[in-house]
Amino acid sequence: MLQRVNPGHKALADYRSIIHRELYEELQELAGRLRGARVLHVNATSFGGGVAEILYTLVPLALDAGLEVEWAIMFGAEPFFNVTKRFHNALQGADYELTIEDRAIYEEYNRRTARALAESGEEWDIVFIHDPQPALVREFSGGLREGTRWIWRCHIDTSTPNRQVLDYLWPYIADYDAQVYTMREYTPPGVELPGLTLIPPAIDPLSPKNMALSRDDASYIVSQFGVDTGRPFLLQVSRFDPWKDPLGVIDVYRMVREEVPEVQLVLVGSMAHDDPEGWDYWYKTVNYAGGDPDIFLFSNLTNVGAIEVNAFQSLADVVIQKSIREGFGLVVSEALWKARPVVASRVGGIPMQITSGGGILIDTIPEAAAACAKLLSDPDFAREMGRRGKEHVRANFLTPRLLRDELRLFAKLLGV
Predict the structure, then answer these.
(1) How far apart are CA 159 and CA 147, in angstroms?
(2) Rounded to the nearest 5°, which phi and psi values hold at 373?
(3) Which of 17, 199, 216, 320 has a CA-to-CA distance to 107 between 20 and 30 Å?
């Protein structure tokens, strides 16, 4: 029996005052057409990572809309997850030699998951498979009823894949009724995508990380960490790794400080006890900061959770996202939703989130520094930028839009 996840309860009506009326009305219309449709989401874990975070919002909202939705976790163990971690990296371009042993492990856990689905006796209109881990479940699920529609969602950038892994997986993925990608640029070159559907991710505006905080509450929280809320500060929220370039952010801060001497820098990231590379880069960043009392480094291990991230983002004078390489970078939408001016690299999905007047895209450290200095010296300009950015996120990157896009796909596949 597969582990089922209880995603809690959410009400679509709670978002009505946040999203545009036309979107809410279309959601109601789609819900009427799909009422009673049975949908099963399958992924590898119920905690950690963006997929679980998205499903904890999407599943209860779809339930509230009248669909019969469940979320199951596939069978897995350490040997399987070691293999799928290598698959994950390989699909993003890492070197990897696919062995017969790795294929056997991967196929065995997909076969077990498919067998459990078939033996449950349950019938599904839609089975929604997330990422490479359970990608072969459809291949081994001969016991499910004819007429079930299968969707495979890829949450990663596969534009420069390891061809050996891609050539192995792709015949199975191509058999799905739909292949969902974040953006066309993330699809692998030279393969057929018979059911390609583009659906960008989104943030939940009512989650603890994104819900409205008063300025007083945000100031109180931020001040507890020693940051002077009476002085401006720059902020980057990202993992401590070279692709997020925290050292480059420090360089930006140092250039900005030449024009705005009172500026501070806050770097917030998520750390894991079992991630030695992350800790190496944390210490590298600490050393690069050189004991500057106006540079602050925080993480989940220094009591910075969702509410604290919210407070830092809500209060920052400028939010930076100086990624060298990026997936989609929803942290940008998080900051824009809080009406903060954002200075971000022109990589990955970031340009989709920043439109003209709603943020500043940069390619170099001097460009980033000049943009930050401009925003700090011109509060009216910064305020208008924040307003435009928030409205762009409202229209394009909130969870109800993501739900709408998925319901549209369900309706298309089911012919309703």
Answers:
(1) 31
(2) -60, -40
(3) 199
Q: Mean of the per-residue pLDDT values for the chain?
A: 93
CA end-to-end span of the chain: 31
Q: What is the pLDDT of residue 142?
A: 76
Q: Which is nearest to 74 in space by CA: 121, 132, 122, 114?
A: 114
Q: What is the rounded distance in angstroms from the CA atom of residue 186 to the CA atom of residue 155?
A: 9
Helix axes 365-377, 379-396, angle to 10 degrees: 110
Cα 16 to Cα 11, 23, 65, 66, 310, distances in angstroms: 10, 9, 13, 17, 22
| Among 85, 82, 73, 11, residue whose Cα is nearest residue 47 | 73
Q: How far is CA 204 from CA 12, 180, 197, in A?
A: 12, 20, 22
What pTM did the predictor assign?
A: 0.90
Mean pLDDT of 118-133: 92
Sheet of strand 196-198: strand arrangement: 3-4, 68-73, 38-43, 126-130, 149-153, 178-181, 196-198
Query: Alpha-carbon distance 76 to 110, whole Å?
Result: 9
3-class DSSP state of 86? helix
Q: What mean pLDDT comes out for the span 1-23?
A: 94
**Alpha helices in 65-137, H assignment, sequence order:** 78-91, 100-119
**What three-state secondary structure class fits 414?**
helix
Q: What's the pLDDT tens digit per position in 189-234? A: 988 888 999 999 999 999 999 999 999 999 999 999 999 999 999 9
| Contact status, residue 73 vs residue 46, Cβ threshold 8 Å | yes
pLDDT > 70: what percent of the chain? Answer: 98
Q: Which two tokens stand for residue 52?
A: 């679980």
Q: In this structure, are residues 228 and 222 in contact, taking their beta carbons and an 8 Å threshold?
A: no
